[in-house]
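U., I forgot to send this yesterday:
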Amino acid sequence: MEFNLIASTIFFIIVIAFLLHKKKDHQKRAPPQAKGAWPIIGHLHLLGGSALAHRVLGDLADKNGPIYTIKLGTHQALVVSDSEITKEIFTTNDKVFASRPKSKAAEIMGYNYALVGLAPYGDYWRKVRKIIVLELLSQRCVEMLSHIRVAELNASMKGIYDSWVVKNNVREHDEMIFNSDESRMVKLEMGKWFLDMILNVVLRILSGKRLEKNNEEAVRSQNAVRNFFDLTGTFVLSDFIPYTSFLDVGGFEKKMKMSAKDMDEIIEGWLLEFKKDKESGQQQKHEGNQVFLDVLMNTLQGASKEDFFGFDHDIVIKSSCLALLIAASDSMGTTLTWAISLMLNNPSTLKIAQDEVDNHVGKHKPVERSDMKKLVYLDAIIKETLRLYPPGPLSVPHESTNDCTISGYHIPKGTRLLVNLYKLHRDPKIWANPLEFKPERFLTTHKDVDVRGKHYELIPFGAGRRVCPGDNFALDAMGSTLASLLQLFVIKTPGNKPVDMSESNGLNNIKSTPLDALLAPRLSSNMYHFGS
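Result:
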């Protein structure tokens, strides 16, 4: 009897131990790994060529499901394209994935990880981000600085009109009648025009200065911003196979050093000019508000290197300016270019948006910030543009700082995370006819979906701790720019040809071909003299 009891107890313990071991093994099961990995380089051969990375990873998701891993040299990366899994990552495991992996781009072009968007998660990142948000990107600051955006927008709109007047030899008091003859319209490369305007908005907020159209510094600044994004989105072999750094395969490190030098010289010039004006008492202020360089200098006054974790004051200032410059100018310019491209390829959408502006703003006064809440269809166009063409089709990489569990899979510390926004935003389970441009969906089936990181089926600005803090500024500027453009001008493509919607590789989802458009005034001449 006693022997049977002992035997039963031992058997019970063995069964429990076995079940616990099986449960532990189940809990530590790994996500599926995509096939096609090569020795040493893993799946890098799929991502380093001309094929668009977000499309390659989207095709792999079709084969492996919405969560899988790939090998990037010595590193493992988790690729996700499902809204529920994404929500789990940026809520339950948000802190675990709040850091960034090391990269040559962040080291060489980001002031050795001082650039807040690429900095690892920690005290330095928290401190600098807090300054930027409180002093520049809060809703209060966006409202206070809106007069700068309005002034630059007005100047840019008037510039188009003035070009049309010169081309058509129109006198000041001539009655304007729009003529559909293309020879009378002004040709404009829209991507460059958007970038010029936004660059001046950001630069005036940072330093109080602006760049004149097509001058050497303006062209150099545009090229430097463009190169930064192209290089940051490049797969550099040494990021994934560290011992290959001395080879500089593709010459990317050399290009990064040149780009970093160019960008630093530009920002250094702004900083030195500002310091000189400040010392002479000539620094500019905006209606009593300090420019951001002044805010940074005052904040850092008296602080030691140790207060900013080894970075000297000038590095903190320059890296903060660089973060704002690249985050605002290229991302917003890219989104605005896609939005106009989509409307030009869908004339009925453009007409509905233009009619909405006419009905709710009118034809006799400029678009004001208070008008924007009434332009719900235009807002839907912006959301649909961000759905189809998010500024970064792949999220900026995250890296796990601890082991965690995602969707039942064990994810070890040091795993890199790529959220494929391009695939996520086109999930047929969430979006009916996901490949079609249908702004109306945000007035009906998805009218409550926002883009600020709380609805995980649409996160063009990211989500969680590393969400882009400039979403309010970007949405405010993009909405008013499109509304003013539609109010003031007829816009079409040469020969009414469809816009090429092919994409280029890089960190930002840019068009592979320039967007040339024809514009002409559509209102009375007095509407084009504001801001003069």
